[in-house]
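Q: I'm building a small set of examples for a reading group on sequence design. Run inverse folding on the following structure and report the sequence directly after it, with nothing in between.
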């Protein structure tokens, strides 16, 4: 804003512009941190991964949410991943941040297998009775990250980076329909066709399916 005003011939500095924007309630539109607080009625479960080695597939699954940029706003993207082979089991998108699309991704993953432990952060979607109750009904232990556990999500964060830099930013989706079609193609290619150096140049699907036999 400061640069634009200067190009219009106004002699302003950044501090004054920032102060005036704050006074008028103007701010950039972007996903803000800590947008999903734990409501006081939601239960937070203990972290079950501490000092527990991951030795086989379907021992621990995790999920996370990221934002997909569109021309007119954002989509929420959620995915479920197996920790042992870093295999993306399912994904779902939503125009809102309610729990529905998280349950959709979980239901898709449950159609493949069932984990012993399901690890999440403490977001409102994952602490809700709708989500934790679904885990309990399936006989799955709920585990939730606490402070200092940010590195536990490093693998799914790498997936988000790949999704955005190789698909979202390149395609520049205009509509939710375009995003869903593009993401569907990307995830099939990423899991079933793409040979990963970290997996000895095998596909994630081949590794996961062979390990789960």
């Amino acid at each position: 804003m400061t640069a634009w005003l200067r190009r219009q011939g106004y002699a302003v500095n950044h501090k004054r512009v920032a102060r005036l924007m704050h006074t008028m309630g103007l701010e950039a539109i972007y996903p803000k941190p800590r947008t999903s607080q734990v409501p006081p009625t939601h239960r937070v479960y203990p972290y079950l991964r501490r000092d527990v080695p991951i030795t086989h597939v379907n021992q621990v699954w995790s999920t996370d949410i990221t934002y997909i940029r569109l021309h007119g706003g954002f989509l929420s993207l959620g995915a479920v991943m197996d920790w042992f082979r870093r295999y993306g089991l399912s994904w779902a998108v939503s125009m809102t941040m309610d729990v529905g699309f998280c349950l959709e991704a979980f239901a898709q993953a449950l159609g493949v297998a069932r984990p012993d432990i399901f690890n999440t952060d403490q977001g409102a979607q994952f602490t809700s009775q709708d989500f934790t109750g679904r885990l309990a009904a399936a006989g799955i232990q709920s585990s939730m990250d606490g402070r200092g556990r940010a590195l536990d999500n490093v693998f799914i964060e790498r997936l988000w980076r790949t999704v955005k830099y190789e698909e979202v930013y390149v395609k520049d989706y205009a509509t939710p329909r375009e995003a869903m079609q593009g993401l569907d193609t990307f995830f099939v290619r990423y899991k079933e066709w793409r040979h990963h150096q970290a997996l000895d140049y095998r596909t994630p699907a081949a590794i996961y399916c062979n390990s789960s036999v």
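The CA atoms of residues 61 and 157 lie 14 Å apart.
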